[in-house]
């Protein structure tokens, strides 16, 4: 159900422990059932990774690498040992927020070039079209 008067009126939780890295450097999780293309979306991500300083951890909702709201705000190192609202490094635990417009075939893509990431949960919120 959607309510166009609310800023985010559709939600989806992906609770899928997935390893990204090694042979599987890119994982794409389809977001079927959400509002179609050009809808603003926000994703809250929880992941665990091995090294906060290794570059190459990227997240996309279909429109290219996204800049996280917190941490080092580096789109080439989203998983940097940061957690929203915490000033210190969280030693391998990442809680990050990203925002973008959904593409025609919405999906959450997680990529790592050098690290290994255990992706845990994503809570996605989508603004319904008026």
Beta strand %: 35-45%
| Largest pleated sheet | 4 strands, antiparallel
Describe the global form. Answer: globular
Count of distinct strands: 7
Radius of gyration: 14 Å
Question: Which class of secondary structure composition applies to the elements?
Answer: mainly beta
Q: Which bin fits the share of residues in helices?
A: under 10%
Ranges where pLDDT stays below 50 over 5 or more residues in a row are none
Q: Please, how many helices?
A: 0
- Mean pLDDT, as a whole number? 84
Give the neighbour order of strands across the main sheet.
1-7-3-5
N-C termini distance: 13 Å
Order of helices and strands: EEEEEEE
Per-chain topology:
Elements: E1 10-20, E2 26-30, E3 40-49, E4 58-60, E5 93-101, E6 107-111, E7 117-126
Antiparallel strand pairs: 1-7, 2-6, 3-5, 3-7, 4-6
Question: What does this entry show, briefly?
Answer:
This protein is an all-beta fold and about 130 residues long. The chain is built from no helices and seven strands.
């Amino acid at each position: 159900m959607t309510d166009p008067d609310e800023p985010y009126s559709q939600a989806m939780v992906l609770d899928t422990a997935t390893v990204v890295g090694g042979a599987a450097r890119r994982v794409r999780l389809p977001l079927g059932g959400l509002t179609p293309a050009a809808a603003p979306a926000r994703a809250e991500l929880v992941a665990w990774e091995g090294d906060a300083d290794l570059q190459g951890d990227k997240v996309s909702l279909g429109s290219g690498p996204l800049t996280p709201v917190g941490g080092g705000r580096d789109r080439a190192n989203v998983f940097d040992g940061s957690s929203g609202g915490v000033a210190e490094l969280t030693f391998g635990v990442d809680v990050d927020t990203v925002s973008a417009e959904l593409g025609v075939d919405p999906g959450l893509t997680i990529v790592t070039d050098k690290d290994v990431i255990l992706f845990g949960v994503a809570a996605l919120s989508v603004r319904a079209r008026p």
